[in-house]
Amino acid sequence: MIKAAKGAEHALKKKRYDNMAKKHEPIHGITLDVSTPQVEIEDSTPLYEKAVLGKDAINSYAQLSRIDSSISCAHTIASQRAVESALGINVSNQTKMIRELLLRAELIHSHINFLYGKIIPRLAGAKDYFDYAKKFRKEAQRALIARSKAKRILLILGKRYPHPINSVVGGILKTFDDDEQREMVRLFKELAREVLKTSEFLLKQSITPFEVTSKPLSLWEIDTTPLLSGKLSVGENMRVSVGKFFKNFKPKESYLTGPLARISNNNKLLSHTAEKIVRKAGLNFPLKNIFHSVLCLTIEAVHCAQRSAQELEELHFEKQDIKVAKRRSGRGFCAVESAKGLLYHEYFIGQKGVLRSVKIVSNVKLNLFHLKKSVATFPIDPDKKTRKEIINDISFLVDSYYL
Amino acid sequence: MKRRIKVGLLEKKACGGCFERLKETAVSNELLDNIEFLDIIKGDEKADFVLVQGGVLSSSQKKLLEKISRAKKKLILFGSCAIDPNFILGIKNIRSAGEIGSVFSSICGCPPSNDEIGELLKSLILSKTIPKISWPVCNECSENEIKCLLLKGEECDGPNTLGGCEVLCPKYDKSCKGCRTRLEKKEIR
Fold it and tell me: Which residues contact A282 (CB under 8 A, 6 or more apart)?
């Protein structure tokens, strides 16, 4: 379609659009011009890379968690793990488990927020979230309750949300007591049921057919669906260790990351209920229709909630000391799956423990290329659809990338 | 409360956490009958008040704020990044909206608590400013009998930082990083 837009038809279409309305129509901070559809989204990570340079590596996570509040736990943990890897700190299995739980809880919280803040209001024909909350009070309150349940888990695990404080370089400051553990099990189970209801609603919606040719990039492990460990996987053909990120991936070329990529790469290990949603939807892997990412949010949230409840029922947590970090130089890296996609942090720490080099590849950087390409090639039909409808379709496409 | 106001939301360079909490508070406190929220980015100029989240980085952001200021909209700095973005985010050349337009009210926090946001929104409906916080984090540490981290020999920003956070960090033996902005900022109400 972009070729067509550049060709002879372009002048006619453009004239039509110019007559229709203003040249630019910004949507959620994204400037859209429907005559030559394109998105302008800024990746703010380079600003933060510069901001932490020369600062104490051990405490840099606090600033880096401010890149995006909805994935602040993921940036915090990615930063801490990269520093731990540079300083040669091996944290306990309990710390790894609590961090994984924290990531899962954030994933559920973020998915619920996104579904009820953007996707469902759009499907319900509301102007925005506030319009939706006013017109559909009961549903909005139900979503708030689900969100507050996820937030409660995040507060038990992270002691603060967004920008958690309980995970630090070397370990976890305070574990939870038995009552809190039982409470989390109950909340995870309730959340799984709640999201399952949402998936049933989404299954009834028609999906626009639109395939992307992108390669799904996510973490992968043979026996689990990891958010914090494993290899980098691009489908079944390419699996490399995290430390070889820049050797194998060029962020500007871009890979598709996020729920669609994770479900594509890890679909064999989903929980029973999550698998049921996959079967009901009739999904075939690898997933290529970007609009399926909305349903993937519910599949993933159900899976994470059930897995977490199951693991929490079986595990026992105890108080552990924080491993004290000796300030020394070294290179460290870490890849973490955030709700919105893969994050890669790579640092070089100088002699006095300050950051000398910081490279962060965010979900935005990874997905941006394909998003722009998708928007440019998305089939728009100005003869059958109004400008408003076209903008709505393209906005839904942009939302499906979950930036 | 029968009065209905229009509140514009303007997002600048920030993590987005403050407006997320605003949405949560507005819906859970059932304030949508009294407040209509407008997206300033969409060019909505009907707002009585404009809540600014984050710091100003680009010239286009600055121009938009100048335009809002010229239109005599009541500007509210929403969250610590809007009040002191350089200190909170550490990004160079970032400015507060308060340096560009005159500020009607402000609310600190990273993000502000639901109670604080609820109080702010209710005060806006009445066209009032919210009471000024004037005490440091240290006062709350003393009230909660939390051992002083400075006396333990640790670096702590508590004495310079506005209170009201219920000593979230010192409670877990973590020093205060000043996320509720500096105490001496005069425009904070």
Answer: none
| CATH code of the domain containing A211 | 1.10.645.10
Q: Does A53 touch chain B (CB under 8 A)?
A: no
pLDDT digit string, tens, across residues A12-71: 333 333 333 333 333 444 445 556 667 778 888 999 999 999 999 999 999 999 999 999
Whether residue A19 is contained in a domain is answered as no
Contact A305/B at CB under 8 A: no
CB distance from B147 to chain A under 8 Å? no
Q: How many domains does chain A have?
A: 1
**pLDDT tens digits, one per residue of A70-101:** 999 999 999 999 999 999 999 999 999 999 99
Q: Please report whether residue A184 resides in a domain.
A: yes
A155-210: pLDDT as tens digits: 999 999 999 999 999 999 999 999 999 999 999 999 999 999 999 999 999 998 99
B165 to chain A, any CB pair closer than 8 A? The answer is no
Q: Is residue A358 part of a domain?
A: yes
**ipTM of this complex > 0.90?**
yes
Q: Say if A14 falls within a structural domain.
A: no
Assigned architecture for domain B5-125: 3-Layer(aba) Sandwich (3.40)
Residues of chain A contacting residue B42, judged by C-beta atoms under 8 Å apart: 26-27
Residues 6+ apart with CB under 8 A from A279: none
Domains of chain B by residue range? 5-125, 137-172
Identify the residue among B27, B167, B174, B175 best suited for mutation to test binding to A, counting A beta carbons within 10 A and taking the highest: B27
**Whether B88 and A66 lie within 8 Å, measured CB to CB:** yes
Query: pTM for the whole thing?
Result: 0.92
Supply the range of the domain harboring residue A93: 45-400
